[in-house]
Write a structure and sequence with these properties.
With about 350 residues, the chain is an alpha+beta fold. It folds into 2 domains: about 240 residues, Zn peptidases (Aminopeptidase, 3-Layer(aba) Sandwich); about 70 residues, RNA polymerase II/Efflux pump adaptor protein, barrel-sandwich hybrid domain (OB fold (Dihydrolipoamide Acetyltransferase, E2P)). The protein has 6 helices and 19 strands. The strands form 2 sheets. The protein has a 15-stranded mixed beta sheet that branches. Helix 1 crosses helix 6. The longest helix is centred in the middle third of the chain and has 18 residues. It is globular, with a radius of gyration of 20 Å.
């Protein structure tokens, strides 16, 4: 396979603080010899572990970009032992457009791994992370939220892995992130995930879903910021004593099967009948969809296929056929103390 067309303007091996770019040549109508310039920060001191922190994997999710932009401007080499690589806007074209996927090639970066150096812009970005950044990392944190079409209870997440020891390490890091909820996540569409690329490479990997609606809140950004520092402390990059605050707990959730998901088979006006955080019983009405082509029609009811906690919901007021309406998760354990 040929070399990546992306070249970093930072030296990943140099001590100190560096702020630069991952430069991807991209010839286009308004810039014949142009480039996509993806901001990157590298902070390094000594020979400790490496943590790779990413946000903006989807361009309409903002807790990660905000928390990591703040971290990149404040964290100093003297504060750490090891190396921190910060990419606040991973799919930079999508982030600039405020869209989930890239406006250049419609690429969903989180479904594009392992990527290809001769592929589309999105595939080239995925290839660079796969072959150049992930091999540098011991710990990987990718901060997500629901974007414009979903809303979530704030949780950090891991997947169930074939390697029980690796899964245990990922779950320990997930709990150290300290979100109000911690999820063992089941993906509807896992092909090409950045998550899988990191996990298959043997990394300690944690993802999040910290809200949604295509914006952020003071509370969701605060969860992201605390979580980043907890993750860094757990990895041994910063002193644990520097991040110990008031005692917090997390509630462990699980998505064991497809019955957790409710998918709309109709398009129309969405009435959510339960709110995030509500406990529901099997058969409870979660939502109704109204026909918007005529009045007087009886709405279609969507009912829970299992009992549990409403952990995610469709966000816009209109729904399309095939949209996820709601996600119901099992509560495994409540009020687990957050330990780093």
């Amino acid at each position: 396979m040929r070399a990546s067309p992306i070249s970093p303007t930072v030296d990943f091996e140099a001590d100190g603080e560096q702020h630069g770019f991952l430069k991807l040549p991209y010839s286009r109508n308004d810039s014949a010899w142009g480039a996509v310039m993806i901001p990157v920060t590298v902070i390094k001191r000594g020979d400790g572990p490496t943590v790779l922190l990413t946000g903006g994997n989807h361009g309409d999710e903002y807790e990660g970009p905000i928390a990591l932009s703040k971290l990149a401007s404040t964290l100093k080499a003297g504060d750490i032992n090891g190396r921190v690589i910060v990419v606040p806007f991973m799919n930079y074209p999508a982030f600039r457009a405020g869209t989930r996927t890239s406006p250049i090639d419609a690429g969903n970066l989180n479904r594009s791994f392992p990527g290809h150096p001769d592929g589309t812009v999105t595939q080239k970005i995925a290839d660079y992370f796969q072959r150049h950044l992930l091999p540098l990392a011991d710990y990987v944190l990718d901060i997500h939220a629901g974007g414009r079409t979903l809303d979530f209870l704030p949780f950090a997440a891991t997947h169930v892995l074939a390697d029980a020891r690796q899964q245990a390490r990922c779950e320990a890091a997930m709990r150290a992130f300290g979100a109000p909820y911690s999820m063992r996540m089941l993906e509807l569409d896992s092909v090409g995930l950045y998550d899988s690329a990191a996990e298959e490479a043997g990394k300690v990997f944690v993802s999040t879903e910290l809200g949604g609606g295509g914006s952020s809140t003071a509370a969701s950004v605060a969860i992201a910021e605390r979580g980043v520092y907890g993750f860094l402390a757990h990895a041994g990059i910063i002193d644990k004593e520097s991040v110990i605050g008031e005692a917090r707990t997390t509630t462990l959730l699980d998505m064991p099967d497809d019955a957790c998901y409710t998918t709309s088979e109709h398009a129309g006006l969405l009435e959510m009948c339960r709110d995030l955080g509500d406990m529901v019983a099997e058969g409870d009405v979660l939502a109704r969809v109204y026909d918007i082509t005529r009045s007087g029609a009886t709405p279609v009811e969507y009912r829970a296929k299992r009992a549990g906690l409403l952990a995610a919901r469709h966000f816009p007021g209109l729904v399309q056929t095939g949209d996820t309406v709601a996600v119901v998760a099992d509560i495994i354990e409540r009020n687990i103390p957050v330990t780093i």
